[in-house]
Amino acid sequence: MPIKPAALLSIMAMALAAFPARADWETTRWGMSPDEALSALANAKAHTPAQSELYEEGDATYAPLVKTDYRLAGVATTASLLFDTDDRLVFVLINPVSADDCKALHDHLVQEHGPGTSMSAGIITITDWTGGTDDIKLTAFENGELCNLSYRAR
């Protein structure tokens, strides 16, 4: 059964709800403006999100205002940099070009950060890694319909 966009947004909001934001990702710094992030990331492009791309979390709304192609552990992905309503970088959401690469991302994260803590609910598994300075969350559906990875500061 296909997952409806509204259900995906609800799942993403729940998956991301536990994170505060204060740190860095790659060559960006949390709190940067979209223009600063565009300057910090080679090949990044400004993005005007559709309403369906906005993430709501409690009273907060986040918009993917910068996107870039990104390779993680040899896996082709798209990285979306999400900004709050004050245009401050809050978190990064990474989606593999092919959801079939989700296992490769999981294996890479396990190799880099240890086994993490997993929670399953039906067809969805969420794995968290909270060591170091970042909180990392991999959300995967068994049917391969969704795979995304988020980075936020601890």
Q: Would you mind describing this structure in some detail?
A:
Keywords: Signal. Residues 1-23 form the signal peptide. Helix content is 20%, strand content 42%. By secondary structure, it is α+β, with helices and mostly antiparallel strands. The protein has one domain (5-153). Strands 3, 4, 5, 6, 7, 8, 9, 10 and 11 form a nine-stranded antiparallel β-sheet that branches. A two-stranded antiparallel sheet has the order 1-2. Strand 4 and strand 5 (60-72) form a beta hairpin. It is globular. Residues 4-23 have low confidence and may be disordered.
Give a brief outline of the structure.
With 154 residues, the chain is α+β, with helices and mostly antiparallel strands. Helices cover 20% and strands 42% of the residues.
How many β strands by DSSP? Answer: 11
**Termini separation:** 35 Å
**Can you give the helix content as a percent range?**
10-25%
Give helix and strand order, one letter per element, not per position: HEEHEEEEEHEEEE
Number of domains: 1
Shape: globular
